[in-house]
Design goal:
Blueprint: H1 3-16, E1 21-22, E2 28-30, H2 31-36, E3 67-69, H3 75-83, E4 88-97, E5 109-118, H4 124-139, E6 145-149, E7 159-163
Parallel strand pairs: 1-4
Antiparallel strand pairs: 2-3, 4-5, 6-7
Helix pairs in contact: 1-4
Protein name: Aminoacyl-transfer RNA synthetases class-II family profile domain-containing protein
InterPro entries: aa-tRNA-synth_II, aa-tRNA-synth_II/BPL/LPL, Phenylalanyl-tRNA_Synthase
Domain Aminoacyl-transfer RNA synthetases class-II family profile: 1-114
């Protein structure tokens, strides 16, 4: 099995053991779910064809009628929340597509994994504990992680999670920016 596929299965199993649902949204989506509902301004660069794969024949359309290959997974959260009642505890893994030049750090189709936990009270410490628990479970040993703030137009506050490389331990000289302590 491909390592990315295996990791996705392992993550799904770890989250399912904590009563998270695994959700998969469609790979063909719309401007409505991918941008409008996510609070991307109408003139945001991500809406341009140089970043998003728009389906032929929908370029003159707007909102739900303008179709694209999903450029990120977050639009699936709106779909999920419109079909279910809170509180929400789900993960959504999947392939996404971006019109990018391929190089060592960029690919036109790649895999993302997102988690959404919405309840009346969820402290940030719970998020950090959840991340550490999941990664410890998947990798079988403690993993050094950090949560750092990140701006996303669709959530406040927003965070990104980094983990120390399991191969080099964070010691690759050309990858030392933002190195985990």
């Amino acid at each position: 099995m491909h390592p990315t596929t295996q990791l996705a299965h392992d993550l799904n199993d770890a989250f399912a053991a904590l009563n998270f649902e695994v959700y998969e949204g469609p790979e063909i989506s719309s401007e409505l779910f991918e941008f409008d509902h996510m609070n991307f301004p109408a003139d945001h660069p991500a809406r341009e064809s140089m970043d998003t794969y728009w389906l032929t024949g929908t370029a003159d359309e707007r909102a739900a009628r303008r179709l694209c290959l999903r450029p990120h997974l977050t639009g699936a959260s709106i779909r999920y929340m419109s079909e279910h009642e809170p509180p929400f505890r789900f993960v959504y893994p999947g392939r996404v597509y971006r019109n990018e030049s391929t190089d060592a750090r960029h690919e036109r189709a790649f895999f993302q994994y997102e988690v959404l936990l919405v309840d009346e009270v969820v402290p940030l410490t719970t998020g950090k504990f959840l991340v550490d628990t999941i990664l410890d479970t998947v990798f079988g040993t403690p993993v050094v992680t950090r949560m750092r703030t990140g701006f996303f137009p669709f959530v406040e506050p927003g965070f990104e999670v980094d983990m120390r490389c399991r191969v080099c331990g964070g010691e690759v000289p050309h990858l030392r920016t933002g190195r985990l302590a």
